[in-house]
Amino acid sequence: MKKKNPIIIGIESSCDETAVSIVESNNILSNIIIHQNIHKKYGGVVPELAARLHDEKLLEAFNKSIFVAKIKQNQIDAVSCTIGPGLINSLLVGCSFSKSLAMGLNIPIITVDHIQAHILVHFIKNANFNNRFPTFPFLGLVISGGHTQIIKVNGYFYMKVIGSTLDNALGETIDKIARKIGFNYPGGSSIEIYSKYGNNKKFFFPKPLIKGLNFSFSGLKTYILKFIENQTKKDPFFIKNNIHDLCASIQKSISDILIDKMNQAVIETDINRIVLSGGVSSNKEIINNFSVHAKKNNWDLFIPKKCFATDNGAMIAITGFFKYKRNMFSSIKISPYSKCKQIYSPTIS
Ligand code: KG4
Ligand code: ZN
Question: Could you tell me the pTM of the whole model?
C-alpha cells in the first residue's frame, strides 16, 4: 500500500559524483556525496574511470546514507535513480544497482531525469536561500558542467525547454578556461576564489550574438583561450600578474550573458519567477548579479544552497517522491539515455 510519508532513496551516478540520499516526503534524512577526485589528474572526467569508481563506491555511499538516516533497509518504500542524461556507463552502474536494490527489497523503482531533478531540488525543505518553494509557473535556468538550459516549468512534470546551448555547456566552458589559467578540474570554484579581489572591468570579452533564448559558449571559450595565449606570448607572467582581474572579468562576462538571456525569457514568457540550478549557480558573482538585477526588475529569484546546486542524490530522491505520489513508477527493463530532453511530460518517458 502507498504511504503518505514514504521513505525514498535517490541514487545519482550520471557524472563524477557518487551520491545517495534518503528523504522522507520532502525532508532530508541523509545526503551522501562521494567526489571522484581522480579526474583532476586528467583535466576532465574520464568516462571509463567514472563508471568504475561508481561501481566501487556505490555500496559505501548506500551504507553511509542508511546509517546517517538512522533507518533500516526494509523501511525504504521506493528506489529512485538517475536515468539520464549523462555518461552512459556511469548511468548503467547506478541503474543496475538501483534495480537490484528494488528487486532485493521488493519495492518499486522510479527513474528520474537529471535536469528535471536539478530543478525540483528546490522543493526540498530549506534547499534554497528563500527557504520557501517556488510556485508554478516559473523559469528554470540549469547551468551545470554538462548542461545549459532555460526551462519553462508549468508543473512538477510539465516542463518545456525554451533555450539551450548550441555547443558547449557553461560549466564545461568554465572548466576549460580554468584549466588554461592553471587550475585543477573542475575549475569553477577556483575562478570564483581568485576573482574575489579582481577588477571585473579590466578585460572585456565579446558576448556571443545568438538570437532567441539559445546560448553558445564555444566562441567565447576560444576567444578567451586565444586571448590568454596571445597575452602570455607578450608577457610570460601575464596569468600570474593578472589572475584576479582575469577571473573577475571572465565571471562578469558569463553572468552578463546569463542575465541578458533571462531578461529576454522573462519578456517572452511574461513569467518573472526565476529558479537557478546546477553547479555554476553556486558562483557568488553570478548569485550577486542575479540578486541585484532581480531586485531592480521585480523578479522572484530562487538560488539553491551549494550542496543542492552541484550534483547530489537528494534531488533524485525528491523527484522520486513526487513521482511516487503520482504512481509514476518504472519498469525494471528501462535503460538509461545520454542526451538531454526538450520536453518533460508524464506522457513522454
Ligand atoms: O551540476 P554539476 O555538479 O554537474 C553537472 O550536472 O554537470 O556542475 C558541475 C559544474 C562544473 O563545471 C564546475 O566547475 C561548476 O559546476 N561549478 C562552478 C562553481 N562550482 C561548481 N562554476 C562556477 N563557480 C562555482 N563556484
Ligand atoms: Zn548535474
Answer: 0.96
